[in-house]
Write a structure and sequence with these properties.
Largest sheet: 6 strands, parallel
CATH topology of the largest domain: Rossmann fold
GO biological process, one term: lactate metabolic process
Keywords: 4Fe-4S, Electron transport, Iron, Iron-sulfur, Metal-binding, Repeat, Transport
Number of domains: 2
CATH class of the largest domain: Alpha Beta
Low-confidence stretches: none
Oligomer: single chain
GO molecular function: 4 iron, 4 sulfur cluster binding; metal ion binding
Structural class: alpha/beta
Protein name: Lactate utilization protein B
Mean pLDDT: 91
CATH architecture of the largest domain: 3-Layer(aba) Sandwich
Number of helices: 23
Pfam family, one: LUD_dom
Shape: elongated
CATH superfamily of the largest domain: NagB/RpiA/CoA transferase-like
């Protein structure tokens, strides 16, 4: 799998840097807070929201159980509708297909609808290497592209930028890539959108080839669907002569009725709207209307490996709404770049390690730990992906992979074996408790009071230092429970003499 920000450090290191950027944190807190509030409002209007979630989860689970059948049905439907279907096992095959189509049509540029799949396979870079410019037409993607930046959110890739920063990017970069921004451009959203519209319009009108993804692909009809808020996708899907859609194999839905459920879940969960301003559907080629050559690239790129994991495969239910990002306390404080992948936030923390595999890349292996396991992501997921369950499952996978790769036991392994040996014997457990009590007496001399009044230790030296950097370590009890029990006869020796008189007090 491609689509990882090469050179990105492991999540703890990247997150520490992000936490030091106060402007980034303000931008994220404002944006995610706004989206959360909008989502809560429109979801609260639906009396049977939980039933909708259950229906969405059931549809996606049915797809995953019978994925080969639905994919073959989708191919037949697409072909009957005049589309050309391509199968891509990985990013290299998918990129070669798209580049080949563009080259056959003699074009040196393509316009693009916002697409996570094309970011995942790094299609823009592959096109650029072949001398073909790929112009992003989504406003947020345009901001990221002009700013030579990286996306940090599934729904709003430029969520880490504020209006003043966007204005500076437009003034500095638009003229180098096409129509320049007006010299008197302000940071008013209306003016920024107008500058982007004027800049993109010339690209829409001259482009021969467009590239899109698809939110959903209906197997029974061969219909692809893209939902968006700006209309740029509609321009890409209708004006060019050739349309190439790169679609992950998990995006298939069995029937048009299933699409109805998803189009109720997705907009409320993503943009906090009852329905998307633009919902575009197309079925192959329609003579005289829209692109007259339609290609669909069905992309695997690690998805069949995810499908083979009974616990982890629920990640393939994802409809890319980004609701989990907007409620995640970790994402809100670190942003998407810290995750080092085009899939940030909680869903990225479970999807990227499965697509890439664990045990060989420290950055990827750190992602399942990029969570407090608070469960907020599951509560808002429209298709009920139990992200905390998968995170814990993947943490086990990471540990097992490291055990297989290393000949030496880890500090954690040594500690667990020592604990097992100690606790398997009553005598050893008693000696350990006495030692801990002695340590507690020494520790009490250097302990401090926390704001809650508890007696705690500071940073612990040695291997446990990293654990205590972000946690208060309680002072060990000076007396073990066993010693207290023996000394007080199970607490009875503390009872007043009158308690023994007939059992009355």
């Amino acid at each position: 799998m491609s689509g990882t920000f090469l050179g990105t450090p492991a999540f703890p290191t990247a997150a520490r840097t992000a936490l030091g950027d106060s402007q980034l944190r303000r931008n994220l807190a404002h944006a995610t807070g706004t989206i959360r509030t909008k989502r809560a409002g429109v979801v609260g209007e639906v009396d049977e929201w939980e039933q909708l979630r259950l229906a969405g989860a059931a549809i996606k689970e049915r797809v995953l159980r019978h994925l080969p059948d639905y994919l073959e049905q989708l191919e037949r439907s697409l072909t009957a509708a005049g589309a050309t279907v391509h199968w891509a096992r990985d990013a290299a095959e998918a990129n070669a297909i798209v580049v080949g189509i563009a080259q056959r049509h003699g074009t040196d540029e393509v316009v693009k609808v916002k697409s996570m799949a094309t970011q995942e396979i790094e299609l823009n870079e592959a096109l650029e290497a072949a001398g073909i410019h790929a112009w992003e037409t989504d406003l947020a993607e345009l901001i990221v592209q002009l700013g030579d930046d990286l996306p940090s959110h599934i729904l709003v890739p430029a969520i880490h930028r504020n209006r003043a920063e966007i204005r500076e990017i437009f003034l500095r970069e638009m003229g180098r890539a096409g129509k320049a921004a007006p010299e008197d451009l302000t940071d008013e959203p209306k003016q920024l959108a107008a500058a982007a519209r004027a800049h993109l319009r010339e690209k829409f009108l001259r482009a021969k080839v467009a590239v899109s993804g698809a939110n959903f692909a209906v197997a029974e009809t061969g219909t692809l669907t893209v939902v968006e808020s700006e209309g740029n996708g509609r321009m890409c899907l209708t004006l060019p002569e050739v349309l190439v859609s790169v679609v992950g194999i998990e995006k298939v839905l069995p029937t048009f009725e299933d699409l109805d459920v998803m189009l109720q879940l997705l907009p409320r969960s993503s943009t906090g709207e009852r329905m998307n301003p633009y919902t575009s559907t197309w079925t192959g080629v329609t003579p005289g209307d829209g692109p007259q050559e339609v290609h669909v690239v069905l992309l695997d790129n690690g998805r069949t490996d995810v499908l083979a994991d009974p616990t982890g495969r629920q990640a393939l239910r994802c409809i890319r709404c980004s609701a989990c990002l907007n409620v995640c306390p970790v994402y809100e404080r670190t942003g998407g770049h810290a995750y080092g992948s085009v899939y940030p936030g909680p869903i990225g923390a479970i999807l990227t390690p499965q697509l890439r595999g664990v045990g060989s890349d420290p950055q990827t292996d750190s992602l399942p730990y990029a969570s407090s396991l608070c469960g907020a992501c599951f509560e808002v997921c429209p298709v009920r992906i139990d992200i905390p369950e998968v995170l814990v499952h993947l943490r086990g996978e990471v540990v097992d992979a490291h055990k297989k790769a290393s000949r030496l036991p880890s500090v954690q392994d040594v500690a667990m074996k020592a604990a097992s040996w100690t606790l398997s014997s009553a005598a050893r457990t008693e000696r350990a408790a006495r030692a801990a009590g002695f340590g507690g007496k020494l520790a009490a001399r250097v302990a401090r009071r926390d704001p809650g009044g508890r007696t705690v230790l500071g940073a612990v030296p040695g291997p446990a230092g990293a654990w205590s950097d972000s946690r208060d370590v309680p002072v060990p009890a000076e007396e073990s429970f066993r010693s207290w029990w023996e000394r007080t006869d199970g607490g009875r020796s503390r009872t007043s003499d009158s308690d023994s008189d007939g059992g009355r007090s």
